[in-house]
Design a protein that fits this description.
Helix content is 36%, strand content 35%. The protein is of the alpha+beta class. It starts with 5 loop residues before the first helix and ends in a 6-residue tail after the last helix.
């Protein structure tokens, strides 16, 4: 007969299960990749104007309502937005590379490196408009809970990128997307 009470066995089993879940989460990859593409009804130079500067990004991507400061040059490598928001934390968005009018590379650093994202937007003329491919990849760090989150990032972030491209098209064409 066991010396452990039923309650002790339940608590011990729950603790063991939690340890296994945390170990699996730690072993899961923390890296993720996402992509969205669309053909926008606007010329590549018009689209490039909105993606080549941090201020352009503020017009079509979500940003905190307060605490956003532009730093560095107005456009090109080193141009950036810094934010410090009570709800979203602190971070930096930096343009890393420009190859007008075809490519913008950027980096996002959230909470002092707790989460890093690298991204690119590639533009190509297409049927009187611009074919846009937006790619992102990131690392959520070695937090055992983030391994589980990273597994869902491809789908979730790809959907967010697609919404961003819809907002970008609405901005560059002046046509609001359907609700």
């Amino acid at each position: 007969m066991s010396h452990l009470s039923f309650g002790t066995k339940i608590l011990g089993g729950a603790a063991a299960l939690l340890m296994v879940l945390l170990l699996v989460g730690y072993l899961l990859p923390a890296e993720w990749e996402a992509e969205a593409e669309s053909t926008l009804a606007a010329a590549p130079d018009r689209v490039f104007e909105q993606v080549a500067t941090p201020e352009g990004w503020r017009a079509w991507t979500p940003w905190p309502d307060s605490g956003v400061v532009r730093a560095g040059p107005e456009r090109g490598p080193g141009a950036r937005l810094d934010w410090d928001d009570r709800e979203l934390g602190s971070g930096t968005f930096t343009i890393v590379e420009l190859d007008p009018p075809r490519l913008v590379r950027y980096a996002v650093d959230v909470s002092g490196g707790a989460m890093r994202t690298a991204g690119s937007i590639t533009l190509a003329p297409a049927h009187g408009g611009t074919h846009v491919v937006w790619r992102e990849s990131g690392d959520l760090g070695r937090n055992p809970l983030m391994g589980y989150w990273a597994r869902s990032m491809r789908r979730a972030q790809s959907a967010e990128l697609a919404k961003g491209l819809e907002r970008l098209e609405a901005l560059v064409t002046g046509v609001l997307p359907p609700p």
